[in-house]
Design brief:
This protein is 43% helix and 7% strand. It is built from 3 helices and 2 strands; from the N terminus they run H-H-E-E-H. It has a two-stranded antiparallel ribbon. Helix 1 packs across helix 3 and helix 2 crosses helix 3.
Length: 84
Protein backbone atom coordinates (compact mmCIF):
# COMPACT_ATOMS: atom_id res chain seq x y z
CA UNK A 1 0.00 0.00 0.00
CA UNK A 2 1.19 3.50 -0.73
CA UNK A 3 -0.85 5.19 1.99
CA UNK A 4 -2.81 4.42 5.11
CA UNK A 5 -5.89 5.74 3.35
CA UNK A 6 -5.62 3.22 0.49
CA UNK A 7 -7.39 -0.11 0.73
CA UNK A 8 -5.44 -1.94 -2.01
CA UNK A 9 -1.89 -1.82 -3.37
CA UNK A 10 -1.30 -0.26 -6.81
CA UNK A 11 -2.61 -2.38 -9.68
CA UNK A 12 -0.19 -0.98 -12.29
CA UNK A 13 3.09 -2.95 -12.32
CA UNK A 14 5.02 0.20 -13.36
CA UNK A 15 3.59 2.42 -10.62
CA UNK A 16 7.02 3.12 -9.10
CA UNK A 17 8.36 4.52 -12.40
CA UNK A 18 5.31 6.76 -12.74
CA UNK A 19 5.74 8.02 -9.16
CA UNK A 20 9.45 8.63 -9.76
CA UNK A 21 8.77 10.70 -12.88
CA UNK A 22 6.15 12.69 -11.00
CA UNK A 23 8.54 13.36 -8.12
CA UNK A 24 11.35 14.47 -10.45
CA UNK A 25 8.94 16.92 -12.07
CA UNK A 26 7.82 18.27 -8.69
CA UNK A 27 11.42 18.70 -7.50
CA UNK A 28 12.17 20.60 -10.73
CA UNK A 29 9.18 22.90 -10.25
CA UNK A 30 9.68 23.47 -6.53
CA UNK A 31 13.17 22.81 -5.21
CA UNK A 32 13.73 22.08 -1.53
CA UNK A 33 10.87 19.65 -1.15
CA UNK A 34 11.62 16.84 1.30
CA UNK A 35 10.03 13.56 2.28
CA UNK A 36 7.43 15.27 4.47
CA UNK A 37 6.35 17.51 1.63
CA UNK A 38 5.94 14.57 -0.71
CA UNK A 39 3.95 12.70 1.94
CA UNK A 40 1.54 15.61 1.99
CA UNK A 41 1.38 15.92 -1.80
CA UNK A 42 0.59 12.25 -2.38
CA UNK A 43 -1.74 11.89 0.60
CA UNK A 44 -5.50 11.74 0.32
CA UNK A 45 -8.81 11.48 2.09
CA UNK A 46 -9.18 8.52 4.41
CA UNK A 47 -12.65 7.02 4.41
CA UNK A 48 -13.79 6.14 7.92
CA UNK A 49 -17.20 4.63 7.36
CA UNK A 50 -20.04 6.75 8.68
CA UNK A 51 -17.64 9.30 10.16
CA UNK A 52 -16.42 12.28 8.19
CA UNK A 53 -13.42 11.91 5.89
CA UNK A 54 -10.04 12.84 7.25
CA UNK A 55 -6.81 13.79 5.42
CA UNK A 56 -4.06 11.19 5.69
CA UNK A 57 -0.44 11.47 4.55
CA UNK A 58 1.02 8.90 2.19
CA UNK A 59 3.79 6.43 2.95
CA UNK A 60 7.19 7.96 3.66
CA UNK A 61 9.16 4.89 2.58
CA UNK A 62 8.23 5.26 -1.07
CA UNK A 63 9.21 8.94 -1.16
CA UNK A 64 12.45 8.30 0.73
CA UNK A 65 13.40 5.39 -1.53
CA UNK A 66 12.73 7.33 -4.73
CA UNK A 67 14.70 10.38 -3.54
CA UNK A 68 17.64 8.19 -2.51
CA UNK A 69 17.68 6.49 -5.91
CA UNK A 70 17.54 9.87 -7.66
CA UNK A 71 20.48 11.04 -5.56
CA UNK A 72 22.53 8.01 -6.59
CA UNK A 73 21.75 8.77 -10.24
CA UNK A 74 22.83 12.38 -9.77
CA UNK A 75 19.49 13.94 -10.70
CA UNK A 76 18.82 15.36 -7.23
CA UNK A 77 21.09 16.66 -4.48
CA UNK A 78 20.39 17.45 -0.84
CA UNK A 79 20.21 20.95 0.57
CA UNK A 80 22.29 21.61 3.65
CA UNK A 81 19.19 22.67 5.61
CA UNK A 82 17.09 19.67 4.55
CA UNK A 83 15.05 18.87 1.47
CA UNK A 84 16.26 18.28 -2.06
Amino acid sequence: KTSRSKELPPSDPDWLYVRTASMVRKVYIRAGTGVGGFRKVYGGQQRRGTQTKHFCKSSGKVARYVLQQLEEMGLVEQYENGGR
